[in-house]
């Protein structure tokens, strides 16, 4: 009986966390470059149930041999193992804003690989993002909408001295006096990156390998890859599963209460 409580409760907790991830996806459906989280549900290890007893041997000494009769397996619940970002390319939307840059994937060496802008967070650490919603701060540096410096290929902040610049399709930022290559990086397995807030990822990334093709589209933004309709449908499914586990938990509680009250009455 108590095992049933834990199994139903674990299902409720898992569906709650699944719904939280879906809610966060929907909240960021309009965030440029946002990558939707996908929750991976996994069952706890199964338990093998066996009936234990004795088999009496008809001898003068009356020997009893222990025997075990397999009954079957029992699942002990489910949990959210991890949230995995979906790194699929989002739709490209034209904004006509010169500081908006869309990183469009071309031919990548590996199916799990992906390209990112490299930026510097407030602690001076290198992070990666697909959000090309950029601007120029008061000191003339190219920054993200959260104030993180956009880096060039050498890992330095990019000084534009104003809004008058052009970005070529192959990733060079050009002004009247300079030609700077944007710090586009590549990771072989994007799933190994750790998702942080404000659209940032941390982990290992390298220079773009030979044979990789991509485009930078100025005046465009990569949209979130969240499918709002699908997310709403999944939220309804998660709610129904939560509600089902809740009813099971309530039934266990009523059965336990009835058993306790009847045993007390018999005593």
From TrEMBL:
Alphabetized UniProt keyword annotations: Bacterial flagellum, Cell projection, Cilium, Flagellum
Source species, domain of life: Bacteria
Gene Ontology cellular component annotations, sorted alphabetically: bacterial-type flagellum basal body
Main localization of the protein described in the UniProt heading: other
PROSITE patterns for this protein: FLAGELLA_BB_ROD
Any Gene Ontology biological process: bacterial-type flagellum-dependent swarming motility
Residue ranges annotated for the Flagellar basal-body/hook protein C-terminal domain, each copy included: 217-260
Flagellar hook protein FlgE/F/G-like D1 domain: residues covered: 113-172
Cell compartments where the protein resides: Bacterial flagellum basal body
Residue span(s) of domain Flagellar basal body rod protein N-terminal: 5-35
Family as reported in the entry's similarity comment: Belongs to the flagella basal body rod proteins family.
NCBIfam families cross-referenced by the UniProt entry: FlgEFG_subfam
Protein name per the record: Flagellar biosynthesis protein FlgC
Organism listed in the record: Virgibacillus indicus
């Amino acid at each position: 009986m108590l095992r049933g409580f834990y199994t139903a409760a674990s299902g409720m907790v898992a569906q709650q966390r699944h719904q939280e991830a879906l809610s966060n996806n929907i909240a960021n459906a309009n965030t440029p470059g946002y990558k939707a989280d996908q929750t991976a549900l996994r069952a706890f290890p199964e338990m093998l149930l066996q009936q234990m007893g004795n088999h009496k041997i008809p001898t003068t000494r009356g020997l009893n041999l222990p025997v075990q009769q397999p009954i079957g397996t029992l699942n002990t619940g489910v949990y959210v193992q991890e949230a995995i970002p979906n790194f699929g390319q989002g739709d490209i939307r034209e904004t006509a804003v010169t500081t908006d840059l869309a990183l469009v994937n071309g031919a990548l060496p590996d199916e799990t690989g992906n390209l990112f802008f490299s930026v510097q967070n407030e602690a001076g650490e290198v992070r990666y993002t697909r959000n090309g919603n950029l601007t120029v701060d008061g000191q003339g540096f190219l920054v993200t909408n959260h104030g993180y410096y956009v880096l060039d290929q050498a890992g330095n902040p990019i000084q534009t001295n104003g809004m008058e610049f052009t970005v070529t399709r192959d990733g060079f930022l050009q002004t009247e006096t300079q030609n700077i290559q944007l710090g586009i990086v590549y990771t072989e397995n994007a799933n190994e990156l750790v998702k942080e807030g404000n659209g940032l990822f941390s982990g290992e990334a390298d220079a773009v390998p030979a044979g990789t093709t991509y485009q930078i589209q100025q005046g465009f933004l990569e949209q979130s890859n969240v499918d709002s309709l699908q997310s709403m449908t999944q939220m309804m499914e998660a709610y129904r599963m939560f509600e089902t586990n809740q009813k099971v938990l309530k039934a266990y509680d009523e059965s336990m209460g009835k058993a306790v009250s009847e045993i007390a009455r018999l005593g």
